Amino acid sequence: METQSTPRPISKGTCVFCKAELAKNKMTQHLKFCKQRLATLATQEKQSQETKTRLFHILAEGQYNPQYWLHFEVPASESLWSLDRFLKDMWIDDLDHLSGFTINGTNYSTDYPDDFFFFSEEEKTEEEDLSEEEEEKALREVIDEVVSQFAERFASSLGIPFNSDPQTAEWVAEIKRPRSVDELIDFLKAERVRIKKEERSVWKDEQDIPVETRHRRTLTLQYQKIIVEQLLDEVEDCSMEVSLGRVLKVGQKFSYIYDYGSSTYINLRVIGEREGIIQEKKEPVQLLAQNERESYKRRRNLCSFLLKILRLLFLVPYVGSLQQKLQWDTLPIA
Ligand SMILES: [Zn+2]
């Protein structure tokens, strides 16, 4: 939500290692070459008995207040919980509300049951982990169920058996190809992107194709979409237990929302990764650089308070324009 107001001055922040004060757009580069940081890392590696592990370098900034930002490093083995805790610590003072991440089209929420697992707990405790074969079998059963559940409806609306459409049959065969759960999730997410793209182009590009064929194509895409979403619902863990290494990679942009009522939005981006030592196991997220944030916390809490009053006075329709003018991070719910 960009307003046409005068551009904000570039905010400055401080490198945790050498205490240098730098503009926001210079910090990434500085952290790469900061002598103090490199010396600290070298000493750590020399003295520590620990083995190296994969670490993500992440930049976080306020979505509506990008002048508030911070750089940090976190082990890929940590879960979204660690990130949630860290962002709450750094950004927000009250901690009683729901929060969540949106990564690659999936919403991970503190509200989602933590014990989610594609396979039930009893099955897991009996035998620690399912063998690859058992996992594949269970996965195949779920896929068969979902596909057949929707095949009938598809057939009745098209007037032909689902699998007699060669393209669909091929697609179903591809979904059923033996894979691990993680591989299936990756495949389904790629399919989600492909389907969206094709849906847009069906009516645009193929001008010489008969209307009936287009209808059928649209319908097929619709059913593929339903199956993809249904399967993702069945097999994807959307809790905060998910490990960062599973859902993040260099270049990945994602977002964080705190308190779905008067929300705070934070944008995040993985700007790099390296193999290194975790400095403190109890505090695995390591701050690298930050700009001043206390005034933001105070402002955020004040905005949240004002919003509650406006709601009580039934003035919610005016909150949007006020929010823009004041560049609040708290937004009303429609
Ligand atoms: Zn530095």
What does this entry look like structurally?
The structure is a single chain. Helix 5 (132-158) runs antiparallel to helix 8. The model is unreliable at 120-127 (pLDDT under 50). It is globular, with a radius of gyration of 24 Å. 48% of the residues lie in helices and 17% in strands. The longest helix is centred in the middle third of the chain and has 27 residues, at 132-158. The protein has 2 domains: 12-112 and 241-297, Structural Genomics Hypothetical 15.5 Kd Protein In mrcA-pckA Intergenic Region, Chain A (Roll); 123-235, no CATH class. The protein has a 9-stranded antiparallel sheet, sandwiched between helices. The chain is α+β, with helices and mostly antiparallel strands. The structure holds zinc ion.
List the helices and strands and how they pair.
Elements: E1 12-15, E2 21-23, H1 24-33, H2 35-47, E3 53-62, E4 69-75, H3 80-91, E5 99-103, E6 106-109, H4 121-126, H5 132-158, H6 166-176, H7 181-202, H8 211-235, H9 244-247, E7 253-258, E8 264-276, E9 286-290, H10 294-312, H11 316-326
Antiparallel strand pairs: 1-2, 1-9, 3-4, 3-8, 4-9, 5-6, 5-7, 7-8
Helix pairs in contact: 5-8, 7-8
Bound molecules: zinc ion.
